[in-house]
Write a structure and sequence with these properties.
- The chain is an alpha/beta fold.
- The protein has 3 domains: about 100 residues, Double Stranded RNA Binding Domain (2-Layer Sandwich), CATH 3.30.160.100; about 55 residues; about 240 residues, pyruvate-formate lyase- activating enzyme (Alpha-Beta Horseshoe), CATH 3.80.30.
- The strands form 3 sheets. A 9-stranded mixed sheet has the order 11-12-10-9-8-7-6-5-13, sandwiched between helices. A 4-stranded mixed sheet has the order 1-2-3-4, with helices on one face.
- α3 crosses α5 and α8 runs parallel beside α9.
- It is globular, with a radius of gyration of 23 Å.
C-alpha cells in the first residue's frame, strides 16, 4: 500500500491502523500500487481534524473526523484518536467490517483501561470511554476493564528491589508450522544442548549472584522456550540445581517450568521439577483434534496430552496451565468447543487461549499465504465461547495481549482460578519490575517503574543476549551486561 500523509503524525502509527483491515499488508513508495491511503491532519487551536481517502481493488471510500481539544487528553493522543476514527470509518465503509478492538493496535489492550482506572474513573466510565473514544465494541471494553482491575490488584505497589528471572531453552523436538520463535529442532542443532546447558548454568549462576549482590528480591522464575522439557531428566536436574544453589526458591511467589510439548513430559522430569520447588507447569495441547495437530506439525496427539497431563497432576505440582489456540487451519467451532469443554473437565488451574497469529518467519506462511484472515471465520465464535464458558466455570481473565496479524484481530487471554494467576506473565507484560534473562535470545529488561497515575513514563533498558544458540556459545557470558546492570541500579540509588 502507498501512504500519502500530510501533517505531524508518525507514519508507522498509520500503518498499524491499516493492518487491522489488511493483515500482512506491505507498504511501498510505488504510486501505481493498487492500494492507497491518503491522510491529511489539520491541527487547529480548538480542535483537530483528520481526512482520509482509501482506495482498494478499484473502490474508494472517504471519511473525516473532528474532535475538540480536551483537558483529559494529551495533544498526541487526541491526534491518534482522530486519525483512528477517520481510518476506521473509511476502511469500515469500504470493507464492511468493524474491528472488535477498534483502533487499539498495541500489545496491551488493557493499558488504556488501567490508565483510566488509576485516574479514578469508574468501571462503567472506563468501558464507555473505550467504546466512544477508541471504538472498542462493548464486550471487549468489558474484558479489558476486568483484566486491568485484576492486574492492578495483583501488582499492588511495585518495589524497585523486585525482579523476576527468565531462563531460555530455545530447542523443540519438532517445529510447528505456525512457530516463529528462536527454537531449534534439527539433530545437528539439538546436539548443541549439552554445551548450551553448561554455558547457561554459568550465566544463571552469575545473574543470581548479581541479584544477591544488589540486594534484589526475586518474585518469580520462568523457564521457557522452545520446550524446556526437551532436556533429559539429568540435564533438567542440573539446571534446577543451579537455580536452587543461587536462590532460595521457597521464597518465590511462583516458579514456572513451561513444559509445553506433551511428547517431552515424563514422570521422572515432573518429579524432579516438584523436588526442586517448581510450582507451575504448562502442558499445552493447542487443540485436542488430532487432524488439526497433524496439519500444524505439532508432533504429538491428544492421547499424548492426556498422558502428560495425568503425569503433571500426579506429580503434586500445584498449578497446571494448558495453552489452546483459536483459529488454527482446519479447526472449526465444533472441534474447538469440544476441546475447550474437555479441558474444563480436566480442571487445570490456568487456561490460556491464544488466537492464531501469522508470523512472517512461520513455515505455514510459505506453504499458504492465504492464512491471513480478516474476519477470522469461526475464530470469533470460539473466542466468545471460551470466555463465556471459562467465566461460568469460575475462571477469571487475568492477563491479555495482542499481536499483529492475528486471525480476526482478536486477542490472547490467560484465565485462572482465583489465587492461581500466572504472576510472571503479568509482571513481564506490564513491565512493573526488572526481568533478568539468561540464554540464547533472552532479553534482560531493567525497569525504572513509574505508576501511570504519576504522569511519568517508566524507563526501560534492554540488554540483548545473542539470538541463536551457536552465537550464544561463541559469545559466552557477557561481562559488559554485569557492568550495565550495576550502573542501572546505582542510578536508582540501590
Amino acid at each position: 500500500m502507498k501512504l500519502h500523509i500530510e501533517g505531524n503524525i508518525n507514519a508507522y502509527y498509520v500503518q498499524t491502523l491499516v493492518m487491522i483491515f489488511f493483515p500482512g499488508e506491505k507498504f511501498s513508495e510505488d504510486e501505481n500500487d493498487a492500494h492507497k491511503l491518503s491522510l491529511r491532519l489539520v491541527e487547529g487551536e480548538l480542535e483537530v481534524s483528520a481526512f482520509v481517502t482509501l482506495t482498494c481493488q478499484g473502490k474508494t471510500a472517504s471519511a473525516e473526523a473532528t474532535m475538540p481539544r480536551r483537558e483529559d487528553m494529551t495533544a498526541d493522543r487526541l491526534k491518534k484518536i482522530v486519525i483512528g476514527h477517520a481510518v476506521l470509518n473509511a476502511a469500515g465503509e469500504l470493507l464492511h467490517y468493524r474491528p472488535s478492538w477498534g483502533m487499539l493496535t498495541g500489545v496491551r489492550p488493557s493499558k488504556v483501561a488501567t490508565e483510566l482506572l488509576l485516574l479514578g474513573k469508574s468501571k462503567s466510565r472506563v468501558k464507555r470511554t473505550l467504546a466512544a473514544d477508541y471504538l472498542v465494541i462493548p464486550k471487549k471494553a468489558a474484558l479489558a476493564t476486568e483484566v486491568a482491575l485484576l492486574e492492578q490488584q495483583i501488582i499492588g505497589t511495585p518495589d524497585k528491589r523486585d525482579c523476576s528471572v527468565y531462563i531460555s531453552i530455545p530447542f523443540c523436538p519438532t517445529r510447528c508450522t505456525y512457530c516463529s520463535f528462536v527454537s531449534y529442532t534439527s539433530k545437528r542443532l539439538l546436539s548443541l544442548i549439552p554445551a548450551y546447558l553448561e554455558l547457561l548454568k554459568r550465566e544463571v549462576a552469575a545473574k543470581l549472584a548479581l541479584i544477591r549482590e544488589l540486594g534484589l528480591r526475586v518474585k518469580t522464575v520462568y523457564i521457557g522456550g522452545g520446550t524446556p522439557t526437551i532436556l533429559t531428566a539429568p540435564q533438567l536436574r542440573e539446571l534446577l540445581e543451579t537455580v536452587r544453589a543461587g536462590l532460595d526458591v521457597s521464597t518465590l511467589e511462583e516458579y514456572t517450568l513451561e513444559s509445553g510439548r506433551p511428547d517431552t513430559i515424563d514422570a521422572e522430569k515432573m518429579a524432579i521439577a516438584k523436588a526442586y520447588g517448581v510450582t507451575r507447569v504448562c502442558v499445552n495441547p493447542q487443540t485436542l483434534c488430532d487432524e488439526v495437530l497433524r496439519g500444524v506439525g505439532r508432533g504429538h496427539n491428544s492421547e499424548d496430552f492426556y498422558r502428560a497431563y495425568t503425569i503433571a497432576r500426579e506429580s503434586g505440582i500445584k498449578c497446571i496451565n494448558t495453552d489452546l489456540i483459536v483459529g488454527l487451519p482446519a479447526d472449526t467451532f465444533t472441534t474447538f468447543s469440544a476441546t475447550f469443554d474437555e479441558i474444563l473437565r480436566l480442571d487445570p488451574e490456568n487456561i490460556t487461549v491464544h488466537t492464531f497469529c501469522v508470523k512472517k518467519a512461520a513455515e505455514i506462511l510459505r506453504q499458504d499465504n492465504r492464512v491471513y484472515n480478516l474476519r477470522g471465520g469461526d475464530a470469533g465464535k470460539c473466542v466468545d465461547y471460551s470466555q463465556i464458558r471459562a467465566a461460568d466455570a469460575g475462571y477469571r481473565p487475568y492477563y491479555m495481549y495482542r499481536q499483529k496479524n492475528m486471525v480476526g484481530n482478536f486477542e490472547n487471554v490467560g484465565f485462572a482460578k482465583e489465587g492461581t494467576e500466572g504472576l510472571y506473565n503479568i509482571y513481564m507484560m506490564e513491565e512493573v519490575h526488572s526481568i533478568f534473562a539468561a540464554g540464547a535470545g533472552a532479553v534482560t529488561k531493567l525497569v525504572n517503574y513509574a505508576a501511570p497515575e504519576s504522569g511519568k513514563k517508566s524507563v526501560i533498558t534492554r540488554l540483548f543476549n545473542a539470538k541463536y544458540p551457536y552465537e550464544y556459545l561463541e559469545a559466552g557470558v557477557s561481562a559488559e551486561q554485569h557492568g550495565q546492570i550495576v550502573s542501572f541500579y546505582r542510578e536508582l540509588g540501590l
